[in-house]
Amino acid sequence: MFKKVLIACSCFIMTIYSFGQDKNNLQENISTVFNTAAEQYKTLLDSANVQMKYPRSSKNGNLTFVGIEDWTGGFWPGALWYMFEYTKNPKWKEAAIKWTETLESNQFNTKHHDIGFMMYNSYGNGYRLTKNEKYKAILIQSAKSLCKRYNEKVGAIKSWNDKPSLDGKDTMRFPVIIDNMMNLELLFFASKITGDPTYKNIAIKHAEKTMQNHVRPDFSSYHVVDYDTITGIALHKETNQGYAHNSTWTRGEAWGFYGFTMTYRETGDIRFLNTAINMADFFINHKNLPSDKIPNWDFNVNEVGYTSPANAQSNQLTYIPKDASAAAILASALLELSNYTGTKGAQYKKTANEILSSLSSKNYLAVAGTNNGFLLMHCTGNANRLSEVDKPIMYGDYYFLEALLRTNK
Ligand code: GLY
User: Fold this and answer.
1) 179, 226, 323, 397: which is the annotated catalytic residue?
2) Cβ atoms 321, 378 nearer than 8 A
């Protein structure tokens, strides 16, 4: 009996000890990453201030920038807000304000669905941290602009304008991409802040449609679903950035999972929670997820039963690149999901911490002074266009910092 009690006590002490160790390691990782970010983003900030454009990635060793129209513009001020949130250093706040406010005219942008990424990550974080009333009005107008792309008959927001499918077989007239789940957060915010349920109702309709047509029975996902605006039916289910129409593009799966987790937070609707849980489980238990938990850009590259569409160029690659940005998005969403899932949540948190530990290692985290001023290496933007393959990308950094801040909360 005494022996049994002794064993139980030592197991308990070991668990507490290893939990303490994990926590210490995590704290160390967080401070390493934010210290690295302070050095890297000083360089990025200097270059961005000269160019007056948004840092996005790198090409042939050079930093690449984009203008106000690009979907990624909001990640730069968003990352600056996260720097301010962690360090409380006013210099990051000043930079975040400056770069957020450059995006102001996008509040009227109705050209694509990405206004959520552009405005909620910049002005949304700015409003959360400063309660600046001017930002609130801009966010509400941004939500109005996003709603202009909603089609009642389809029950979804149109992501892109008319677009030929990758294999050139058809022109998609109402393409909706799984990524669009991320833009719904702006709509939930607008309803909360105005008391007008219109925005939220549109977000819910869109999430329901996505659950119905993008999410497959095994909880993997299609990248693009194209709808008929007369009948509302789904005409085509295909890929644009994934390996094959029936494959799972890992960033797309991560966008979907993050979006359903957030939609559950905003609605309390158990259907969205179940979808999020099943998508998370599909991802983290996937047989092709490498042991460091940083996925390849698509789960099914070169697998039997998956064919790369005509015009996709990924088969020119001589290796299968990873996508650290997908891992960062996944880690951030797992940390949120862990709060809603009781005992299962501990597993999600553990996996998120494993991902963050990989991303904070020298395999993925750049040494200060390298990587064109970004934090993460080995992200993949669009392998089908051989664009930003195995490169730093601003949104990878953004979700990495977000995830680290979430572990701190
Ligand atoms: N939303 C586009 C991408 O994830 O590349």
Assistant:
1) 179
2) yes
The answer to whether the CB of 402 is under 6 A from ligand 1 is: no
Domain ranges of the chain: 24-408
Mean pLDDT of all residues in 195-202: 98
For residue 24, the model assigns a pLDDT of 73
Please work out whether the CB of residue 179 comes within 6 Å of at least one atom of ligand 1. Answer: yes
Q: What secondary structure does DSSP assign to 267-322, as a single string?
A: H--HHHHHHHHHHHHHHHT-TTS-TTS--BSBTTTT-TT--PPTT--GGG-SS--B
User: What pLDDT is attached to residue 174?
Assistant: 98
Q: What SS3 class is residue 260?
A: helix
Give tens-digit pLDDT for 267-291.
Answer: 999 999 999 999 999 999 999 999 9
Q: What is the mean pLDDT of residues 76-92?
A: 98
Answer whether 251 contacts ligand 1 (Cβ < 6 A).
Answer: yes
Q: For residue 47, what are the CA distances in angstroms to 42, 43, 52, 372?
A: 9, 6, 8, 10
**Which residue's C-alpha comes closest to atom 1 of ligand 1?**
179
- The CATH label, of 1.50.10.10, 2.40.50.100, 1.10.10.60, 1.20.1530.20, for the domain at 24-408 is 1.50.10.10
114 classed as catalytic: yes
Residue with tokens 């039963």: 305
Task: For the beta carbon of residue 306, count every other beta carbon within 10 angstroms.
Answer: 18
Atom of ligand 1 nearest to the CA of 182: 1
Q: Can you say whether the dihedral through the CA atoms of 191, 192, 197, 201 is positive or negative?
A: positive
The per-residue pLDDT for 191 is 98
pLDDT band at 7; cut points 50, 70, 90? very low
Confidence of residue 26 (pLDDT cuts 50, 70, 90): confident
Phi, psi at residue 350, to the nearest 5°? -60, -45
The mean pLDDT of the chain is 95
Residue nearest to ligand 1 atom 5, measured at CA: 381
Question: Model pTM greater than 0.85?
Answer: yes
Which helix (H) or strand (E) segment holds residue 171: the answer is strand 171-172
What is the end-to-end Cα distance of the chain in Å, rounded? 41
Among 22, 46, 114, 323, the active-site one is: 114
CA 192/CA 166 separation, integer angstroms:
38
CA of 325, closest atom in ligand 1 = 4
